[in-house]
Amino acid sequence: MKKKGFNHMKKWILGIGLLLLVLAGCSNSKASEKELENLPNLSGETALILVHGTGGSTGTFDGFSDTFIDDYKLSNERIKLEIGTDGKLTYQGVFTKNAKHPIVQIGFEDSIDATIEEQTDWLRIAMQDLEKRYHFATFDGVGHSNGGLVLSTYSQKYAKTTPTLERLVAIGAPYNDLDAEDNDGDLAFDNVPVTTPLLKTYKDKRAKIDSDLLVLSIASDIDDGSFSDDIVPVLSALGSRLIFKDTAKVYLESYYKGAEYDHRTMYANPNIQKKVAWFLYTYKDDKKEVELAHS
């Protein structure tokens, strides 16, 4: 009798353990139909997708999300989603039916050697799965450094897919690579000295961009004479104007100057976070608008 009772207790404990794993949201892309049925329909919400740069992870935007949730009260829930090089998705957390402006912190397993094209295709896998799980119809994207390039590539390659990318924020994205001589000039530029293959690719595909897209491009100068954020030249970060200015519905630029706007941490800067929040949740897209950075 004792052995039978022990086995019963063991099964009960195992069952509880499995339930806790499900509740913790630790799952891969092969969710069962029953699991999908238990997830809320968030088709009325626009997800906020955060994409890190080179060497980043699902935790890169932790502080950013904390600010949006705890300080700004613009969102109330977030999950993390890592995409493997084989397309496998690993979730941390689940959204509830009460999620408002739900945040998804994306992480690429290969965040160093993978190409922008590869990471863009991996992001597409993630977006398809998020649509399947939560029925998102639209999303906004914020990308730091190469994360901004990933979202920009997405805006061209997957413009006609759902969920639809509505607002794109690129923070210190190197649209024309990193060479200072290739990006010599001032804020009034209408071209760059040397158009790199990367920028040429974006320019060649401008016609693919959704004409309803809203774009905010953020660049910074640490004011040390380099006219860069210590890694990305200002004209490279604002090379976005050669891509989106005449194609997107709205194209806005923001330029920040000072040692506190270093490339590595600019997405964590309070002034930049406030600007991003304003663009995502306050700015009205009721007309076509272009606003270029100026000194």
From TrEMBL:
The keyword Magnesium does not apply. PROSITE patterns: PROKAR_LIPOPROTEIN. Pfam families: DUF915. Keywords: Lipoprotein. InterPro entries: AB_hydrolase_fold, DUF915_hydro-like. It comes from the Bacteria. This is Lipoprotein. It comes from Listeria cornellensis FSL F6-0969.
